[in-house]
């Protein structure tokens, strides 16, 4: 029944790919099949994190059904991106699906970009490390990220900035904090035997993101935090001081725990769990809060879906044994839904999909 429903839903989504480039629209009318993009997204562009975060689900659906149409759609996106010129080796967040040209040159490992990079790595992992093209794209991307976006603050905190209008903005979003876990997950199999380097980088990002929590009144992290002058890992603007039950920091704690078993990650996760329970629990569930620096926070009255799918799941896994969902057998999609590593003996997912 779930397979049938998945096929029905995917069928409703396929018309979104009917663009001159094959880069899908952000939205599609399920009845008419007409697609469109967000009005605010750089002159009608599609968004990197949206069209770049379909790979795992579509490849898995082709595996389940034996129908290569889903696989072909996402491979086409990858081939197109591979051929394009990239400023400084970075992928801008906006791509026009009509012209095939980049929109404004804004690059981020946080919102608008984040899960595209995650899925390059996870495509390789999900393929039982056979999809070497995905691994190469990932390695190239994180080398560019490290060169152009990752910096150390005056106080010694490693952070990932955003490239905007030709300069680096010294600000990191809560969403970007997932990258600590990504670097750790990608350490094994990295180029030039740099596994130790990437594990260390993951640990430094985890530390910075923990500081963003620790420097608030509620011990919950803000939506974005700056590294300007004397200001470090702290939100400055009122509209960046909120916490909406986001999982990314805890996700990184979990990956770092799996790969290092350093007890501080469980300690940090427990701090976050206690803070969520203390300040976000309401009679009907859990709510986001509008200001993590206020000792009397106000609620936003929303329990986001990712709170159950990710935040609580990663906390649960952080305190579970490694044999629960071992990373050799399972790859988590960007919403923490586990998909199996496909041990496809005698089959290929690149070229001729001879599915079993």
Automatic annotation (TrEMBL):
Its cofactor is Ca(2+). GO terms for biological process: carbohydrate metabolic process; N-glycan processing. It catalyses: N(4)-(alpha-D-Man-(1->2)-alpha-D-Man-(1->2)-alpha-D-Man-(1->3)-[alpha-D-Man-(1->2)-alpha-D-Man-(1->3)-[alpha-D-Man-(1->2)-alpha-D-Man-(1->6)]-alpha-D-Man-(1->6)]-beta-D-Man-(1->4)-beta-D-GlcNAc-(1->4)-beta-D-GlcNAc)-L-asparaginyl-[protein] (N-glucan mannose isomer 9A1,2,3B1,2,3) + 4 H2O = N(4)-(alpha-D-Man-(1->3)-[alpha-D-Man-(1->3)-[alpha-D-Man-(1->6)]-alpha-D-Man-(1->6)]-beta-D-Man-(1->4)-beta-D-GlcNAc-(1->4)-beta-D-GlcNAc)-L-asparaginyl-[protein] (N-glucan mannose isomer 5A1,2) + 4 beta-D-mannose; N(4)-(alpha-D-Man-(1->2)-alpha-D-Man-(1->2)-alpha-D-Man-(1->3)-[alpha-D-Man-(1->3)-[alpha-D-Man-(1->2)-alpha-D-Man-(1->6)]-alpha-D-Man-(1->6)]-beta-D-Man-(1->4)-beta-D-GlcNAc-(1->4)-beta-D-GlcNAc)-L-asparaginyl-[protein] (N-glucan mannose isomer 8A1,2,3B1,3) + 3 H2O = N(4)-(alpha-D-Man-(1->3)-[alpha-D-Man-(1->3)-[alpha-D-Man-(1->6)]-alpha-D-Man-(1->6)]-beta-D-Man-(1->4)-beta-D-GlcNAc-(1->4)-beta-D-GlcNAc)-L-asparaginyl-[protein] (N-glucan mannose isomer 5A1,2) + 3 beta-D-mannose. Belongs to the glycosyl hydrolase 47 family. One of its GO terms (molecular function) is mannosyl-oligosaccharide 1,2-alpha-mannosidase activity. Ca(2+) binds at residue 334. InterPro entries: 6hp_glycosidase-like_sf, Glyco_hydro_47, Glycosyl_Hydrolase_47, Seven-hairpin_glycosidases. Keywords: Calcium, Disulfide bond, Glycoprotein, Glycosidase, Golgi apparatus, Hydrolase, Membrane, Metal-binding, Signal-anchor, Transmembrane, Transmembrane helix. Its EC number is 3.2.1.-. Disulfide bonds join 177-209. It is found in: Golgi apparatus membrane. This is alpha-1,2-Mannosidase. It is an enzyme of class 3 (hydrolase). SUPFAM superfamilies: Seven-hairpin glycosidases. It is a single-pass type II membrane protein. One of its GO terms (cellular component) is endoplasmic reticulum. Pfam families: Glyco_hydro_47. Pathway: Protein modification; protein glycosylation.
